[in-house]
Amino acid sequence: MKDKAKILLVEDDTNLGTILTEFLAVKKFDVTHSLNGEDGFNQFKNYKFDLCLIDVMMPKMDGFTLAKKIRMINKNVPILFVTAKSMLDDKIEGFKIGADDYVTKPFSMEELILRINAIMKRTKSSNAEDDRSEFKIGEYEFDFNKRVLAHNGIEQRLTQKESDLLRLLCINKNRILERSEALIRIWKDESYFTGRSMDVYITKLRNYLKLDKSIEIINVHGTGFKLISK
User: Fold this and answer.
1) Is the pTM of this model over 0.70?
2) Residues of the chain where predicted confidence (pLDDT) is lower than 70
3) Looking at the domain that runs over 132-228, which CATH code has it been given?
4) What's the CATH architecture for 5-122?
5) Element (H, E) at 32
6) Largest CA distance in the chain
């Protein structure tokens, strides 16, 4: 049986949130409802979702701020804003942040489900890269599931965090991996101490990959890291 698509609903109106949760459940979605942006972000950090349905005006953390933080962790997960506002500037702001669509209250449930289905269809292949577990890095072969980095038949066993970090670097090969994205996705935290811990892991990975001189993990000042490889 096909797993239900998981939706993170962040809506501070309890009544509307309950109605949406029940309606989407009838449409075969698995819905997690959060009443504010902070709780929504904690849910997103700890669980995997296929789509985020976010109200803009909320206590503790507004929808735009929440979407920005979600985009630090996952650049591809679809985001659909729900708002009472219909101002053009708000829509532009939402799309700049990385929203996939925007629906204005009041809206029909059928319109909402059509928009959700259209977004998920468009973005179905967006996360294909994130599902990969085997990578070629220059002369190295990396198996994420086995946590093994091999070079000319010699295998290096990796810890879980080493594997997690190397996989993120591989997915973003020759592109910048932002520090904040790596810290939140792997350590679930952006504190100074976890940042220093990540730097130690980066040094370890550089050491593991040093036998191929064409491979580099460079620091991008103030931004993050970039794995450079053929």
Assistant:
1) no
2) 1-2, 85-88, 123-131
3) 1.10.10.10
4) 3-Layer(aba) Sandwich (3.40)
5) strand 29-34
6) 62
